[in-house]
Amino acid sequence: MTPHDLQDDLELLRDAALEAGRLALARRERGLRIRSKPGGSPVTDADLAVDALLTRRLRAARPAYGWLSEETADDPARLSAERIFVVDPIDGTTAFMKGRPWFSVALAVVEHGLPVVGVVYAPALDELYHAAHGSGARLNEAPIHPSSARSLRNCAMLGDVAAFSADTWPPMRVEKRNSIAYRMALVAAGAFDAAYAPTPKWDWDVCAGAAIAAGAGAYVSDHAGRPYRFNQPDPRQPGLLCAAPGIHAQLIAKHARAEAA
């Protein structure tokens, strides 16, 4: 994929994310219909409406691309596609349902297993994070970079407090944001030093955030330090570690000690 192609795809995803965000907010304002998916996680009529909008816009614009979305039945044909869209129509549905701002539309293009374009849009905050391979990452129109943190002690961490309960972890400021993609974007922008989750995450949870974090200069891997590879038969990653370069290796080591404790 050429840089020109990447910028075209980035423009497509940005425009689609903005439209999807407006639709999500409008549907929430009207009132949501909510049901449980197999496994118990909630889905709203807005999730499905946004998925339908994105399917129409993106697949019509790039019919040769494969498709992987949280709200669409998986089609194994994606495995033979050179490029695919990876989509989470509303990442952070629980926050969305409760009227909180920490949800996002997360969109990515994957080529040969690697995310080359990513967009994370938090419509309630009007924050549009975006990146294309080789062109850096931005929040709205301003370039973003991860923090200069060098120590885990007193760093700003995004994750579940329970994950840091072992004595092996130093004191840290731990906060939670429902959207995994948004957590990664916040690390990319230096608002937090790291995001950590030692449990499996779907590709649509982390793919767009991985593109943005890498574009900004943050380090992304699973919780044990293994690199991500997308568009595999099982579209899940073992965990998440997105961090400023100065503390990524320290987090891998702390995770290993916590697991052994």
Structural notes for this entry:
- By secondary structure, this protein is of the alpha+beta class.
- It folds into two domains: 141 residues, Fructose-1,6-Bisphosphatase, Chain A, domain 1 (2-Layer Sandwich); 105 residues, D-Maltodextrin-Binding Protein, domain 2 (3-Layer(aba) Sandwich).
- Helix content is 33%, strand content 26%.
- The protein contains six helices and 16 strands.
- Strands 3-4-5-6-7-8-9 form a seven-stranded mixed beta sheet, with helices on both faces.
- Helix 1 runs antiparallel to helix 2 and helix 4 runs parallel beside helix 5.
Short précis:
Helix content is 33%, strand content 26%. Helix 4 packs parallel to helix 5. The protein is built from six helices and 16 strands.
Topology:
Layout: H1 3-30, E1 34-36, E2 42-44, H2 45-61, E3 66-69, E4 83-91, H3 93-97, E5 104-111, E6 114-122, E7 127-132, E8 137-139, E9 142-143, E10 156-158, E11 173-175, H4 180-188, E12 194-197, E13 201-202, H5 203-216, E14 219-221, E15 236-237, E16 240-243, H6 248-260
Parallel strand pairs: 3-4, 10-11, 10-12
Antiparallel strand pairs: 1-2, 4-5, 5-6, 6-7, 7-8, 8-9, 12-16, 13-15, 14-16
Helix pairs in contact: 1-2, 4-5
